Amino acid sequence: MRVELLILFYMAISLMMILFNGCYMLVERLRARRFERLAARFEDELAACENRVAEGRADAGPGPSHESLLAGLSRLSGMEAFDATMGRIAADPDADSVVLDAYLKGVAPVFEQLSRHYDDRPYLERAFFAYLVRRWYRAKPAANSIIYCLQRDLMADSLYVRQNAFEAMAHVGEAPLLAHALEALDGRGEGHSPRLVTETLLASTCNQDILASALDARLEALTPQTASAVINYLRMKSAGSPKHLLVLMGDARTDREVRLACVRYFMRNPHPCALPIIEGFARSADPAAWEFVAVSAMALASYPGATTVELLKGLLSSRNWFVRFNSAKSLHSLGCTLEGDLADVMAGPDRFAREMLAYRWQLENSSKGGA
Question: DSSP alpha helices (H): ranges in the chain?
Fold first, then answer.
């Protein structure tokens, strides 16, 4: 009897699996049909927009289908279909970008209405809506409802919602709003990836000079990791106030990561007043300060001169491998030669210094050969 029950149990499980797979395939087929139907509708609206543009009409938006578009974008499947359709048209080299831009400007009010719809929606939908705003919202300046929606999502528990909202703000918001958004994001206390912060700021479409000034003024109010990310952004844009960053770099009370970010800033953007501070870091004898020495050795490549060369030659005898490696790299970047400027080191008693120079020159020569 037990064997029969076991067989019946196995048959029941198999039947339920068959039913589940059948239902899943049916749902996916229905979902695919809805996706195709919505995509076709968006393409029809774009074609109608093209006709209006060709006729010279000012309203190139979706016209009477506003409600239809609003209903379509109120669901996740509609958002996916809209994004896929717009993405396909934008990537088509034969498509008219003027028509697409006119259409997206016309549907901007739909996004503004949807911003209230997604107030209490699941995180996935809120993140996707912020993504759509970043890619396809074209109104300038952005409506208050859009800005409020993004500012609210900056406080969400989900990292994906926060990051998508921050990226959307970087594309549709003005510079002061983006600086305020970063401060609000940083103020949550949980921290945010410094790399994501820097990359988002670099990709922003607002006025970069105004943004740099607004961020520079907020550095002391930000957490060290976010402040470092902002300084990295300023470094890559060659923006910000060198005077302010010199003060931060020279202040022993400033967080270590912020000071290191300042050293890297003045490596890319040399400033005569930064050299004494960088040299002071490079001469530090504190083993715990090895990172300052290593980064400063790398930064000295931007400050050519006899004093710099002598300082770097001395750092070749450091016990720290990274210090020696960066020093050799800087000496090579400064145009020193093993037979000339560095002959005394190559003939000297320090085997570690000799080997590091030989290794660095071998790396550089091999990279040139590969190129």
Answer: 2-54, 66-72, 76-91, 97-106, 108-117, 123-136, 144-153, 159-172, 175-186, 194-202, 208-217, 224-237, 242-250, 256-268, 275-282, 290-299, 306-315, 321-333, 343-346, 351-370
